[in-house]
Every structure is written in C-alpha cells, then in structure tokens.
Amino acid sequence: MRRIIIATASIAALASLSGVIFAGYYVARQLGSDLQSTKLQLALIERQVGSAQQQTSDSFKNLRTENKSLAQELEKSQSEIDHLALPQNLLNQVMSRIVWVHCQDANGSHERAGSGTIGLTKNTAKGVTITTNFHVTGSPTSFCVVKLPEAPSYAKLGVPRVALIGKYDPNYPEVDIALLHLFDAKEKFDAFPLSYCQSSEIKIGDRITLLGYPAFGGNTLTITDGIISGTIQTKYGPRYKTSAKIDLGNSGGLAIDNNNRCVIGIPTWTKFGGELGEALGTGESLGQIQSWEIIKTSGQIF
Questions:
Q1: Mean pLDDT, contiguous 10-residue spans, the chain (302 residues)
Q2: Is 28 inside any structural domain?
Q3: Residue 8 lies inside a defined structural domain of this protein
Q4: Concatenated DSSP letters of 207-241
Q5: DSSP 76-102
Q6: Do 168 and 235 fall within a single domain?
C-alpha cells in the first residue's frame, strides 16, 4: 500500500512538472513569436525612417538647387536694373542744366513755380535758352527768375537771375511749351548729352527718370523714377503716362528714357481722381509726359 501511495505521488509530481515544463515552453514560444514580430516591426520602422531620411535629403537638395536658381535670377534682375540706371557722370551733366523757375504776372497777382532745362534747344549767341512749360511762365508779360543748381551736390541753388520769356506755342494747352532766355549766364554748356527719343523707341514698361523741383522734394533738385505706364495719342503725338511721381514744381522739367538713353519730353500734367490738370497740384496722381514729338509736330517753336 505504501508503495502505491509513493508511486501515485511520484506520478502526480511528474505530471505537475510536465505541466510546468509545457507552460514554460509555451511561454518561451510565445515570447519568441513576439520577439520575431518586434524584429519585423523594427525592420519596417528602419526602412520607413531610411525612406524619410532619403526624402528629406532629396528635398534639401532640391531646395538648394531652387535657392541657387532664385539667387541667379535675382542677380540677373539686379544686373538688369543696374544696367538701366543712368551713370553718375551722365546724371551730373544733366543735373547741372535743370533750373528752378519762378514766374509771376506783371501785376504780381499770380505766381507759378516749376522747372526748366538748359540746352534742349540751341542756345543764343548772347546766353542760354531754357525750355519749360507755358503754364509755368504764363503770359509773355510775366516776370520770371531762375536759379541754377550748384555743383557738386546740386542740392543748393544759386542766386536768382532774371530770364526773359521768348517763344511759346499758341496751341496751348494741347501743346504746353515756352522758352526762357538767360542773357547774363557765365556758365558754358556743351551740346546736350542726350538725343531726343523717337516714339517708336518708347515702350510700355521702359524705365524712366524725371528731374525737376517738386514740392515734395523741398523745392530742391529731385530725381524720381518709374516706368512708362501707358500712352495717350493726340493729334500732335503721344503723351506718356508714368508711375514716376510728379508733383507741384515738376512742370517744365525733364523726362529721360533709361532703356534708350534719350529725352522723352517734359513732365507736364497730372491726373487727380480722373481730372486732368497741369502738374501744379499735390497728392496722389498719375503723371503725364509731353513727348518731344508733340512739340516738334506742332512746329510753332522749332
């Protein structure tokens, strides 16, 4: 009996041990499966990370390429702008000829200020000729004085000098030009350094430079720039709209086409809120340039 009990106990113990062994095996197998799954997931993550790194690297390469291309385009654009800018030596030659003009009626009842340019027309044997707008000079009996800018900065004006009114175009206001003569000028001026533009040369988008004495410039010689914004055809020739700022005092000054290095004409009109007027008002406006072709076609001055 004792032996049976011992045998039974041994069998029970063996069965229990087998169960433990089986359970351990199952757990180990399950852990092995989980480990394999984890390895596969890690491998997948590594591949995804590698792919993302490659995409990021490719994006950086593309970005560097695009930035380089953009930098080249900006450099090219800046080079084109620099190429269109008027050289300083040419500006100096032109600035020395842009004069401040102040006129008033014979009875002193009405005063006008503007700009003028020496040497656009042939000077007389006794002095220099100044081209300006008729709406600046007013009637032939008006009294006008001019001041020349002083080198080298041209920021300061010289002493006032009396200028006599010469020819003016009777087709005013369609053609707005008059000549002043300064007979006591001691300064000597060579031929004007720029030729006149042909209308076929001037295109919308051309860069331009304006010189004159606008009120917003403190009535000192001021250069503004912009583009040709559009064209208005008249029976005498084209007027040119421009984005360059024009204000009180610009009238009678000078407009230069930077692209072709030639004289477009004279800043003359502005348009305020749809109303066209002489460049004798202040505020936001669209400037208009009287082309040299208008003046030549009219034929009353030249």
A1: 55 53 56 71 80 81 77 57 78 96 86 93 76 92 93 91 93 94 85 93 96 89 95 95 90 96 92 50 70 93 80
A2: no
A3: no
A4: EEEEEE--GGGTTS-EEEEEEEEEEEE-SS-EEEE
A5: HHHHHHHHHSPPHHHHHHHHTTEEEEE
A6: no
